[in-house]
Amino acid sequence: MNLKPLGDRIIVKQDEAEETTASGLYLASGSKEKPTTGIVLAVGEGKLNDNGDYLPMPVKVGDRVVYGKYGGTEIETEGEKVMILRADDIYAIQE
User: Fold this and answer.
1) In three state form, how does the secondary structure of 26-88 look?
2) Which is the most buried residue in 23, 37, 62, 65, by most CB within 10 A?
3) Contact by Cβ (8 Å): 10, 43
4) Residue 43 CB burial class (10 angstroms; 0-12, 13-18, ≥19)
């Protein structure tokens, strides 16, 4: 990937949208829920504190994360859709 996130930003590859419901019904393309989970592809250096030191990032490359539904910016790079999020938009790390 040719993107490097700046500051406290994180690049996440979104999971694919669900194709069927829990009962097995197929969803129309317009009614698919936007995924709010994905894999971290790149992490910025962190946010600067008042002393000019970087605060550690809460996630690392390879972590599976849950993020806010309306947070971040979706872009396409090298034919792949990714999300650029702030560290504050990440709610949890899935283990």
Assistant:
1) ECCHHHCCCCCEEEEEEECCCCECCCCCECCCCCCCCCEEEECCCCCEEEEECCEEEEEEEHH
2) 65
3) yes
4) buried
